[in-house]
């Protein structure tokens, strides 16, 4: 795990480079290489909109208070930064440590409103991992959703390994510990998903089959 070395070369080419450099009061720079489990908390909209989101700040504070854990942040890039990342073949990165999102054990994405759903696809794509959860490999991060729109997860369920239904601060440490333990014990990705599914309020879409009548969701049936 190493920092992306050439981010500075693209910052002068975007309108508002301050969106991507962090350094705010009370931000935390953790050493990801020494963390037992790491998570990047993602708000799928511009920095100016997401940096004051209280839910993300609460999770960031809770996680970084724990020994052996590290939380960083990321926000959706504006179109000029997205263009530069693609032109220079650079992955989307966290703002504190400038690590690629794919370096983290967990990518936690909040779902604040439906209008940001296309941004979520951009974020996952720029992370360099498969869009669909079922196509991800053992080495890929677990992409987990939460937030107010998570109460209706089916429109974006195919893109998430797990969805937290309810307050994330109630289960975030249990989720991280489950992933940490599963990886440390050499469990497969599907085995860790089964472990996550046992946590109250955690929905693993791969283990359910939605049934529609036209465009109306009729029921969601367990597969396991």
What does this structure look like?
The protein has 6 helices and 8 strands; from the N terminus they run βααβαβαββααβββ. With 224 residues, it is of the alpha/beta class. The strands form 2 sheets. A 6-stranded mixed sheet has the order 2-1-3-4-5-6. The chain has a two-stranded antiparallel sheet with strand order 7-8. α5 (172-184) runs antiparallel to α6 (189-197). The longest helix is centred in the last third of the chain and has 13 residues, at 172-184. It is globular, with a radius of gyration of 17 Å.
- Computed over alpha carbons, the radius of gyration is 17 Å
The CATH superfamily turns out to be: Cobalamin-binding domain
Q: Write down how many β-strands occur, each being a DSSP E stretch of 2 or more residues.
A: 8
Q: What structural class results from the helix and strand content?
A: alpha/beta
The CATH architecture: 3-Layer(aba) Sandwich
| Number of separate structural domains | 1
Q: What is the overall silhouette? A: globular
Using the coordinates shown, work out and report the CATH topology: Rossmann fold
Distance between the termini: 35 Å
Strand order of the largest sheet: 2-1-3-4-5-6
Overall average residue pLDDT: 93
Strand coverage percent: 15-25%
Low-confidence stretches are none
Instruction: Provide the helix percentage.
Output: 25-40%
Count, helices: 6
By CATH reckoning, the class would read Alpha Beta
Order of helices and strands: EHHEHEHEEHHEEE
Largest sheet: 6 strands, mixed
């Amino acid at each position: 795990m190493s920092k992306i070395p050439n981010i500075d070369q693209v910052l002068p080419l975007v309108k508002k480079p301050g969106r991507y450099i962090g350094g705010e009061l009370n931000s935390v720079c953790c050493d990801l290489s020494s963390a037992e489990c790491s998570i990047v908390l993602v708000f799928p909209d511009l920095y100016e909109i997401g940096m004051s989101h209280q839910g993300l700040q609460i999770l960031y504070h809770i996680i970084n208070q724990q020994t052996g854990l590290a939380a960083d942040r990321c926000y959706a890039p504006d179109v000029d930064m997205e263009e530069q990342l693609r032109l220079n073949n650079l992955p989307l990165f966290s703002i504190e440590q400038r690590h690629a999102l794919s370096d983290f054990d967990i990518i936690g994405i909040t779902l604040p409103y439906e209008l940001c759903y296309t941004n979520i696809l951009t974020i996952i794509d720029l992370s360099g991992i498969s869009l669909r959860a079922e196509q991800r490999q053992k080495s890929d991060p677990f992409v987990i959703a939460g937030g107010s729109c998570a109460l209706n997860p089916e429109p974006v369920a195919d893109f998430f390994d797990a969805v937290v239904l309810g307050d994330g601060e109630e289960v975030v440490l249990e989720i991280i510990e489950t992933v940490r333990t599963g990886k440390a014990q050499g469990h497969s990705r599907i085995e860790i998903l089964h472990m996550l599914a046992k946590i109250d309020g955690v929905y693993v879409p791969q283990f359910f089959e939605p049934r529609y009548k036209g465009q109306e969701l009729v029921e969601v049936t367990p597969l396991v």
